[in-house]
Design goal:
The protein is α+β, with helices and mostly antiparallel strands. Helices cover about 60% and strands about 10% of the residues. The protein folds into two domains: about 55 residues; about 70 residues. Keywords: Glycoprotein, Membrane, Signal, Transmembrane, Transmembrane helix.
Length: about 130
């Protein structure tokens, strides 16, 4: 029974994990298992100790909120970084496609230019033959 440790020390009370120490009234009581936090009429959060004597519930709630918020922010940053990497990979692949398209067009122009040169050469050769300058 936790009540036997009332008016003793916090350490003695919390040796039993089912006990809750209230520092303001120096009472040791059963932890209200049905509730996550002890009700205010039982003990104030700043005076309630459970598990260890050096952490009260108020500090525990603040610390857990800070840790939880930090984790959420880190997850958000990681998600943003992943999205940015995916976008940058897409942007890198698009210029590759543009470069391939430009190379194909250059090759087509080069082939057409060679065909025109060949046609012009054959015409000039015909004219030279016709007028006997060859």
């Amino acid at each position: 029974d936790c009540r036997q440790y009332t008016n003793k020390t916090c350490e003695e009370c919390l040796k039993n994990v089912t006990c809750l120490w209230c520092a303001s009234s120096k009472t040791c009581m059963e932890y209200p298992v049905r509730r996550v936090l002890p009700p205010a009429d039982l003990c104030e959060l700043r005076s309630a100790r459970w598990g260890v004597c050096w952490v009260n519930f108020e500090a525990l709630i603040i610390a857990m909120s800070v840790v939880g918020g930090t984790i959420l922010i880190m997850l958000g940053v990681c998600c943003c970084c992943c999205c940015c990497k995916k976008k940058s990979k897409k942007q890198v692949s698009e210029p590759d496609k543009d470069e391939e398209r430009a190379a194909r067009e250059r090759e087509k122009r080069r082939v057409r230019q060679e065909e025109r040169r060949a046609e012009m050469k054959s015409r000039h050769d015909e004219i030279r033959r016709k007028y006997g300058t060859v």
